[in-house]
Amino acid sequence: MRAMILAAGRGSRMRPLTDQLPKPLLTAAGTPLIDYHLHKLAKAGVTDVVINHAWLGQQLEAHIGDGSRFGVSVAWSPEPAGGLETAGGIIRALPMLGDGPFIVVNGDVWSDIDYHELPTQLGDAHGHLVLVENPAHHSEGDFALSDGRINLETTPRYTFSGVSVISPQLFAGFDEGFLKLRPVFEQAINGGLLTGRLHQGYWCDVGTPQRLAELDRYLRIDLDH
C-alpha cells in the first residue's frame, strides 16, 4: 500500500519556530515529527510514500532523501509558493500514488492510531476517515458517524484526525489547483461514499508551540517508562 504525508503547510501559528524550519521537522522528544510518520508507515507495511512540500521544502528533502533509511521509498511532490492546500496537493500527487487506495497523514499530527487497522480496500466507499474526540481548540467537531458511515446530520460530531485512507475516485470531477479537503469530503458524504471509525487513544494536532510542548512532555513520559 502507498501513502502520502501532507507537509506543505507554512505553519504560521508555529512562528517563530517555523520561520527557518518547515513544521514537519520540528521535534518532539528529540525526533522530527515527520520521522514518526515514516517509521509508523514502514512498520505498517507501506513501501512507497509521497511527500508534498512548499515552505522550505529543500530542508525536508535533505533530511529524508529517498526514504531508504526509514525503510520506505519516498517520492517528492513540490508545490508553488503558498502550497495548493490539502486536496490540491493530493490531486497534484495522484499520478505518483497509483490506482488503488492510499493512506493520507497530515504531517502536523501525532497519534497512537494503529495503521495496521486501516482498511486496504474500501468497498463501495471513496474514503475512510479516522475521527477523534474533539479537543478543546476544536470543540464543535467536523463530522458525525453512524453505522460506520460519515455524515453531517447526526450528533455527536467528532474531529477529523488527519489520518485517512483515500481512493483516487474521491477526486473525480475536481481539477488540480488550490483546494481544501472539506468540499471534497462533503461531496462524498452526500453520496454516502465515506466510511469512518472513532479512535479513542492519544492524538495531538501539533498546531501551536504550546501543543508541541504538550506532545513533547507526553512522549518523554512514555520514554521514561
From TrEMBL:
InterPro entries: GlmU-like, MurU, NTP_transferase_dom, Nucleotide-diphossugar_trans. Residues 3-121 form the Nucleotidyl transferase domain. Keywords: Nucleotidyltransferase, Transferase. It comes from the Bacteria. GO terms for molecular function: nucleotidyltransferase activity. This is Mannose-1-phosphate guanylyltransferase. It comes from Aliidiomarina soli.
